[in-house]
Amino acid sequence: TTVSLETTNSLLDLLCYYGDQEPSADYHFQPSEKSEELEEAIEKNNEKSKKRTGHQFRVTWRYVTHHRAPVQALNLYTELLNNRLHADIHTFNSLIEATAVMNEKFEEKWNNMLELLKQIVAQKLKPNLQTFNTILKCLRRFYAFGKLPALQTLREMKAIGIEPSLATYHYIIQLFYHYDSPSKGSSLVIYDIMNELTGKKFSPQDPDDDMFFQSAMRACSSLRDLELAYQVHGLLNTGDNRKFIGPDVFLPHSQTLIDLLQALDVANRLEMIPQIWKDSKEYGHTFRNDLKEEILMLMARDKHPAELQVAFADCAADIKSTFESQDARQTAPDWPANALNYIAVLFLRAGRTQEAWKMLGLFRKHNKIPRNELLNEFMDSAKASNSPAQAIEIVKLASAFSLPTCEGLTRRVMADFAISQEQKEALGNLTASTSDSSSDSDSDISEGK
Known about the structure:
- The N and C termini lie far apart (91 Å).
- This protein is mainly α.
- It is elongated and about 105 Å long.
- The longest helix has 28 residues, at 421-448.
- It has helices at residues 5-18, 36-48, 54-66, 70-82, 89-100, 106-122, 129-139, 147-159, 166-176, 189-197, 212-223, 226-236, 254-266, 273-282, 289-300, 306-329, 337-349, 353-365, 372-384, 388-400, 406-416, 421-448.
- Among the domains are: 164-250, no CATH class; 251-358; 369-438.
- Keywords: Ribonucleoprotein, Ribosomal protein, RNA-binding, rRNA-binding, Translation regulation.
- GO terms for molecular function: ribosomal small subunit binding; rRNA binding.
- It comes from Hipposideros armiger.
């Protein structure tokens, strides 16, 4: 039985959209990667109709441009012209995008885009919003070269009566405001944009419309302009514009949480830290060491009231469990030295002495050097509990790492504790061995010179 042209075209539509996979049940469908089998299926489907129709050209064209095959897209366009067929405006939009990924200089790419626009006019087609947004989307990757063409494109679309969408301005902001280096020469563009948009209500016109408010706020942050940020916020609250702040679920980056922690530090609101850590776990940042170290550092930097120290110690214990979980997943686990120091200090200050002493074992296990401040806090704890045995253990640890503070710790033990003659001799031996190690190290350095 001969398959009808309508069925053939419908099959081609499905192949080019879903690829060679079954349609995904997930809401956020991701098209499959380009595959040789899929290309073969599309080609066979086209061959069965003996001669490609305009529809088949256009659908296949969009497939190859979607998969970044610009040369193949241009060949298809040539074949379409040779068959005296015409492209629609959606096909031209795809070809503009394909032209932008060609391995050419920015100026050549721009000239190719202009040539395509001339062909749109020659075929008596009218460019639409997506045509201009596609151009701007491509120009944002042209860096400094793209700025003048972008402004020309914006003026042209307004001249022919096409109202820009939020995505239009999103692309321009991305081009003119790089996150780390907003230039003075480009700083007026967003002010012009906001003066034009203030008070307007928008409806969805482009898939990237929801990116505008994010990029606008980033530009405000880069410019350090609070008044402008409030202007952007005012636009967001105009009509139903807040629908564009998607996605529905916002998961902050770990650096955003670090910035929040630093702001809490400035505002002297460190009691919020345990809640920030709890939220961080919900956001999937359990194994972000930079975030965990920032939290631990802020909690351990100063002494606090007893109730807050207990809360901080609970938080530190939870963070400690994540490092232990990380150990189990890694073949060569490694604890950061800072984290070990901070957690031990927090346990000591909260009266969780046994857990703090267990932390010292981790220093030996992971070959990390404890800080002098930590060893002194352990010595204070040993003095508070009147435990010379614990104090001597601190000296032993300092001696094992050949730390210069070993001699000072020994003097503290002699002065603050009632120790036996045997313990005094043991301390003397530890101090002597540490001195010998230091001398050997100095000799090695001298010989090296």
